[in-house]
Amino acid sequence: MKNNDHNKVARRRLLTGMSVAAVAGLAVSAGPAQAQPATEGFQPARHDKDAWLNELSGSHRVFIDSSTMAGGPAGLWYANNMISAHEEEYDGEASDFAMVVCFRHMSTPYGFDDGIWAKYGTIFNRNADPAPTRNPLSTPSASNGQNSIASSVARGVHFAICGRATRRFAMAIASATGGNADTVFAELTAGAVPNSHFVPAGVLTATRAQEYRYSFLYAE
Asked: Which InterPro entries does UniProt cross-reference here (predicted)?
């Protein structure tokens, strides 16, 4: 038998042996071990703009996201429902929660006080008849579970307000009134509800909150 034939037979025997080993569940090395992506011990980067999320006290962390006109009141209702259930069923206290309700996209105006709504309510909700002259969350109602911004703040609830959406509303107001968008933006940010935090973007902060181990809930 020629040397080439001997080499072919040897390779066949080697491959057959590897196949049998694989079927038997034995480890078969096909070359140098490849480095695997590190999945354990991951630590997300931290940024000063998100630091407030880590500064809220509480043994439970919850972030409730809302992006619609209906979602804002629902988010306030959800927050208070959780606190009440915790107080009644777990013998807990409202102070056990780091509770954040996020107003972004079309729910952003819920983060502005009554003075802002009195001035720009017709722009915030063009479909309302009559036009709102107060923040709808200033008053307990069926849509918000008989809660309000004030009663929620008293229980320690905080609010994240989307900065990008606030800028868009400022531009819309300036266009409708002939004003200056930067001036209106400053007015909106100065007229925020208590316990509020303007964030670069609500959608971004929703993800950052999860990096700080907040449980996530969407209200619609």
From this structure: TAT_signal
The answer to whether residues 17 and 29 touch, using CB atoms and an 8 Å cutoff, is no
If you count them, how many residues does the chain have? 220
In the chain, what is the straight-line distance between the N-terminal and C-terminal CA atoms, in Å? Answer: 79
Q: Which of 158, 145, 60 is nearest to 101 (CA)?
A: 158
Task: Quote the strand ranges of the chain, DSSP E.
Answer: 60-66, 97-103, 158-162, 196-199, 215-219
pTM: 0.81
Task: Map out the domains of the chain as residue ranges.
Answer: 49-219
CATH 3.40.50.300, applies to 49-219: no
Q: Smallest Cα–Cα separation from 200: which of 160, 172, 169, 173?
A: 160
How far is Cα 146 from Cα 70, in angstroms, rounded to an integer? Answer: 15
Token representation of residue 88: 């009644």
User: Rounded to an integer, what distance in angstroms lies between the CA atom of residue 137 and that of residue 203?
Assistant: 22
pLDDT in tens, 191-206: 999 999 999 999 999 9
